[in-house]
Each structure stands twice: as structure tokens, then as C-alpha cells.
Automatic annotation (TrEMBL):
<dbReference type="Pfam" id="PF00078">
    <property type="entry name" value="RVT_1"/>
</dbReference>
<protein>
    <recommendedName>
        <fullName>Reverse transcriptase domain-containing protein</fullName>
    </recommendedName>
</protein>
<dbReference type="InterPro" id="IPR000477">
    <property type="entry name" value="RT_dom"/>
</dbReference>
<feature type="domain" description="Reverse transcriptase">
    <location>
        <begin position="85"/>
        <end position="199"/>
    </location>
</feature>
Amino acid sequence: MLNNVAVEKSIPPQNDQVLCLTAADVRHTLRGVNPQKAAGSDILGRVLKECADQLADVLTDIFNISLSCTVVLTCFKTTTIAPVPKKPMVSCLIDYHPIALTSIIMKCFERLIMRHIKTQLPPFLDPLQFVYHSNRSTDEAISTTLHLALTHLDKKGTYVRMLFIDFSSIFNTIVPQHLIGKLSLLGLNTSIYNWMLDFLIGRPQSR
């Protein structure tokens, strides 16, 4: 969440510089691919990992062209839906859980973009936001919540009410234009949030 007061006081200048990835960064990311992860409709993770040296330069060019044009290739956005049984004996469609398999190459690309975004995030993000912050975890969120609640309860005549909300299918409910509006307040590269807008729209599925 954004601290609105801080945002109004400290809106960073617009950044029109296009992100340019290096072959070294791409190579490092490819070498970190988990070969056990299921692939989408593209290359197996094992091949990407073992051929990182041979593929790094080619993929670097593809990624940088994508960033400069703010366009994500359709093949990178295509999701393969695989039905996985929820229980040993299935009798109808609701007994299956749909698993979305996405391009491993695109996951590597996303990881590189996320790494860049984390270095660009301004200091006025909500201190109680734990997701996408380095060295923060769910355990820390729980510990902080308990500490705040118990500290408050130490005072006489007080009580605590908590509301827990579980957002289901949150990725599918994102309104791209609203997200881009939020990102524009963070001072990220203009090309980055335009690229992200293209990434979020027009996502075909296959089975």
C-alpha cells in the first residue's frame, strides 16, 4: 500500500530511461532455473539451465527489444491450463484444480524486471507491507500483528478487532489501468509500466 501523505509530498520525477538488461544478468538468471518446475509451452527448464551460456545473448536481445518497444511477445504471455485432480477419485469437473503453466523464459524475464523494480522502489511504501520487501516474510507479518495487538491489550479497558481477508484469484481481478496509475506514482521507468500494461492484457490460454 502507498502512504498517500508521503506520496503527495515526495512524488519522484518521471523517468523515461529505458531499462537495458545485460547478458550477464540474463545468464545468471537462466542458471538459477529450477529444472524440476513444470514448463509451459516453451523450452524445458533443464535446457535453459544447461544452455545458459549459449542462450544468454539471444534472450538478452529479445528482452531488450521487448522493453524498448513496451510489447510482450504473445508466446510469452500464453498460459497452458492443466487439470490436476483434487482427490484420488474424481467424478466431475469440479474435482479438478486448474493449474496455469506459464513460459519459463517469461518467468526469467519477470524475475529480471522485478529485481530492477525493487532497486527503484522509493522509501515511502507502507512500513507494514511485507510482500515484495527484502528480508520480510509472512512470519514477520504475523509477529508484528501479534505484537501490536498484545501491546494494545496491555492497556486497561481495551480490546482488539481483526479482519482477515483472503483475496482469491487476485491476479485475474487486477484492473491493469488502475495498477499503472499506482506505478506512475513510484517514479519507475515509463517504459516499465507501459511494458507491464501490455503484459497484463491479451493473455491467451491453451489446453
